[in-house]
Amino acid sequence: SGVSTAVKHLSPETRVVGVQATGAETVHESLDKGIPVVLDEVDTIADGIATGGISETTLDIIEANVDEVVTVSDTDIAQAILLLMERAKQVVEGAGAASVAAVLSDSLDVSGETVMPLLCGGNLDMTQMREVLIHALTERQQLLQLRVRIDDQPGVMEEISGVIARQGANIHDVRHERSVENLEIGEAYLVFNVETSGAEHAQTIITAIRDAGYPVDNVARKAQNGAL
């Protein structure tokens, strides 16, 4: 409210864009109905904007000073947090990174404009930071969880580990899974957690495992997409 009021007072032609997390979105409906809308529950990593509703005063200020409101997903926000750490060397909380998430997303066209996203807050504890980074790195496919179906024989783990190693990837850990419904007697899954340099490298690893004769799925990516 303060920023939009100041900006519109000093530079009325400047476009002001508000950003909400998809899991706590209330402004669009509030603007449509002309009254504040309150959610029964919210679900977002951006704690600072997970209010579940706005006041009448805030709605009046948005109507007067904000030109557009866009929403961003938690995945967008996580990617923005990671990017800010890598490029700007800034640790920004989810609510603060939402502005950058909007700029990076397809929901906002800023071509030909000078953009100033506000990085307002660094309240990101270590546990939440770890969760956000794992989510963002998984989305980038820099972290893979590969499930490989095998005949459970001595030497198979070593063989597949060698295939992964020859692609220049680091295996973080691996485990056997034998008690799974769709497995035949004598079969097992090997689940590898692998670090890569990105999506292209990840696909190279998956292709190499398949070329070696083993069915393989990136189960972390599937689970993440399913959750979204």
TrEMBL record:
Protein name: Pyridoxal-phosphate dependent enzyme
SUPFAM superfamilies with a match to the protein in the record: Tryptophan synthase beta subunit-like PLP-dependent enzymes
Annotated organism of origin: Haloarcula hispanica
Keyword terms of this UniProt record: Lyase, Pyridoxal phosphate
MF GO annotations: L-serine ammonia-lyase activity; threonine deaminase activity
Co-factor(s): pyridoxal 5'-phosphate
PROSITE patterns listed in its UniProt record: ACT
GO BP, one annotated term: L-serine catabolic process
Residue ranges of every copy of the ACT domain listed in the record: 145-224
Record CDD domains: ACT_ThrD-II-like
Gene3D superfamilies in UniProt: 3.30.70.260, 3.40.50.1100
